[in-house]
Design goal:
With 127 residues, the chain is an alpha+beta fold. The chain has one domain: Aspartate Aminotransferase, domain 1. It contains four helices and eight strands. The protein has a six-stranded antiparallel beta sheet with strand order 1-2-3-6-8-7. Strands 4-5 form a two-stranded antiparallel sheet. A hairpin with an 8-residue loop joins strand 7 and strand 8.
């Protein structure tokens, strides 16, 4: 999955917008204004190591599932610059099946959408 495929997949979901609030290279995907995925589309650096464009995606995750995924997959780490309990960094190194990445995006989207205030949930349903 490249950035274009990731972007199209996220934007195909109800109520999703993309913005760049931190800098021109950091894309935030939001459902009804709340972030569910963040990625660096420029040349990023993590812990002093240079990474290529679209090296990882930070996604919200249920804490128990997050811990399980981190044990099972080397490419899934605690969320970089995020709450380590509730966010994972999913490294796009080719070791994860695209279906898993999409499943994790769906999970993140659902967690955030389900946490929205009732009025926003109703607005999302009507889209």
């Amino acid at each position: 999955m490249d950035y274009g495929e990731y972007r199209d997949y996220c934007l195909s979901k109800k109520g999703v917008t993309e913005d760049f609030p931190f800098d021109p290279a950091t894309s935030c995907m939001r459902v009804m204004g709340k972030i569910f995925a963040i990625t660096d589309i420029g040349d990023g650096v993590v812990a002093g190591e240079p990474l290529g464009p679209f090296a990882f995606i930070n996604m919200k995750c249920d804490p128990e599932k997050a811990a399980q995924l981190r044990e099972e997959y080397d490419a899934i780490k605690p969320g970089w610059h995020m709450n380590k309990k509730n966010w994972n960094s999913v490294f796009m190194d080719g070791s994860l099946p695209e279906s898993l990445v999409k499943e994790l995006l769906d999970h993140s989207y659902a967690l955030v959408a389900n946490s929205l205030p009732r009025a926003l949930k109703e607005e999302l349903k009507s889209l």
